[in-house]
Amino acid sequence: MSFVYLDVMIEMVLLFAKPSKPRHEASGEVMVPAKPHRRGELTRRGFLSAASGAALGLAAGGLLSGCADTTTPESPAPVDAGPGGIPLARPDQPVTLPLYDDNTGIESGLQPEAGPLLMYNWIDYVNPTLIKSFERKYGATVKITHFTSIDEAISKLTSGSVEFDVAVPGFADLPRLVAGKVVRPLNLDYIPNLKANVWPLLTDPWYDRGSRYSVPYGMLSTGISWRADKLPDFDPAKLDNPYDAFWQATDIKGKVGMLDDQRDALAWTLLGNGVRDVNTGDPALINKAGDDLTELIGLVNLKFGVNDWETLPSGALWLHQSWSGNMILAKNYLPKGTSIDTLRYWWPSEKGGVAKNDLLVTLRGGKNPVLAHLFLNHLLDSANAVENFSFTGFQQPVRGSEPDALVKAGLVPPNLRDTSLTEVQLRNALVTAPLSQSAAAVWQDAWSKVKAAA
After folding, report:
1. Is-cis flag, bond preceding 216, omega within 30?
2. What per-residue confidence (pLDDT) applies to 160?
3. What percent of the chain has pLDDT over 90?
4. Are 278 and 432 in contact (CB under 8 A)?
5. Does residue 72 carry a pLDDT above 70?
6. CA dihedral of residues 377, 381, 385, 391 (deg, nearest 10)
7. DSSP of 178-198, one letter per residue?
8. If you ran DSSP here, which 8-state letter would residue 122 be given?
9. Both 12 and 136 in a single domain?
């Protein structure tokens, strides 16, 4: 077992053992920046998938074993189940999350509270105009506190040191938030837009059957971005193995970037090696992926980062592994006189590449549960979702937000159409889902060796 992984285990033990001291930390209304900061700037998703898996396995060992499970999961629990005995969900192994007698939802027909509504969110991950329209509609102020890493967010949420009403985790974090009774079960009577507007695939998602605790929020895919003016003959779709594009870029050494994200980077190399199981725990496959990434560092002087929204437009890098939403915002950072058409993005939609979505949840400690439900419903309104996309750059799985509609609305340039997903593409996509404790240790060891060589 690596020292890095041991550190994660120790951190999580301390996290869940920490006494609860409720404290108000939300402050300040939403400010509209001149240019959006990227919420991925501090490696938004590395901890989400990697350390989450470690924490899930750790919690299964007894940390949360005292939770009274009143629901039998839909599918048999795989080896190394998560906290509270919750199975590790997969698209082909959907899970119904348990309900607990001491953590119940709100009744129907209640009036919204006076607020203020307190939201815990990534930076620039909701359009300020939507906040203002919600405030006008319900006469309640919305205050947002930002976090800069999922590590920070989950630590505060699970420690009981905050009392927010709404938060934005990923689906890999949901099981431990449920087992820890941090999130409140939803009363969908207050969220009619879930059934009215959200794609059917995510009204009853594999990670939360029946939408007991969550509704979907922003989506993204992981693909290849490049500068067409710098690489006029480059087209990943024409390669026998598009995942090999980075290894073939030895003639642009120093201009190649990879996401500084454990799961996405290693999954990319697994796929390049023909391994479709991006949640594998096989040490041989994972270590081979790590060795290949280490080789790539020397071949092209590989740069790791998640600020491709900036380095690609500036010309500092010409080829990058990217999250789709980053490329939508990258067009805002092109130097004056540089055409939007210079930015390109490829994602293996036909064979199914990696894609995922974030969640909106209401928190058990929040003082405004009715208002929180209404806020979730507000964000799932079709017109609001499109308006939200115009600011965040991350598509929501809501009717009217399909790729053709976003291009027609002028929100996505035709050359970046593939940054948006259809419901069919999301259904066929691969997901970097929660890992078991043993698998997470192997992934972490491989990634540590890669980063040591960078």
Report:
1. no
2. 73
3. 68
4. yes
5. no
6. -70
7. HHTT-BPPP-GGG-THHHHHB
8. E
9. yes
- State the Cα–Cα distance between residues 201 and 194, nearest whole angstrom: 11
Angle (CA) 101-106-108 rounded to 5° is 130
Same domain, 70 and 137: yes
Q: Are residues 131 and 269 in the same domain?
A: no
Residue 231 has pLDDT above 50, yes or no: yes
Position 24: which residue type?
H
Tell me if 417 is assigned to some domain. no
Residue 427 lies in a domain: no
On whether residue 390 sits in a domain, the answer given is: yes
Full-model pTM: 0.79
Do residues 87 and 174 both lie within one domain? yes
Same domain, 185 and 77: yes
Per-residue pLDDT at 29 = 38
Is 420 a domain residue?
A: no
275 shares a domain with 195:
no
What's residue 82's pLDDT?
A: 67
Query: Quick one: DSSP state of residue 250?
Result: G
Which secondary-structure segment (H or E) carries 328?
Answer: helix 324-330
Question: Does 215 share its domain with 237?
Answer: no
> 163-172, 249-258, 290-299: lowest mean pLDDT where?
163-172
Contact between 119 and 145 (Cβ < 8 Å): yes
pLDDT digits (tens, 9 = 90+) for 414-443: 999 999 999 999 999 999 988 887 888 999
What are the DSSP calls for 137-179, one per residue? HHS--EEEEEESSHHHHHHHHHHT----SEE--BTTTHHHHHH
Question: For 76-91, what is the mean pLDDT?
Answer: 71
93 and 173 belong to one structural domain: yes
Q: Please give the structure tokens belonging to residue 357.
A: 């979505």
Give the pLDDT band of residue 151 (cuts 50, 70, 90). Answer: low
What domain range is 396 assigned to?
Answer: 3-219+356-412
CB 414 within 8 A of CB 259: no
What CATH number does residue 242 fall under? Answer: 3.40.190.10
Number of domains in the chain: 2
Q: What is the mean pLDDT of residues 59-66?
A: 33
Find the length of the chain: 454
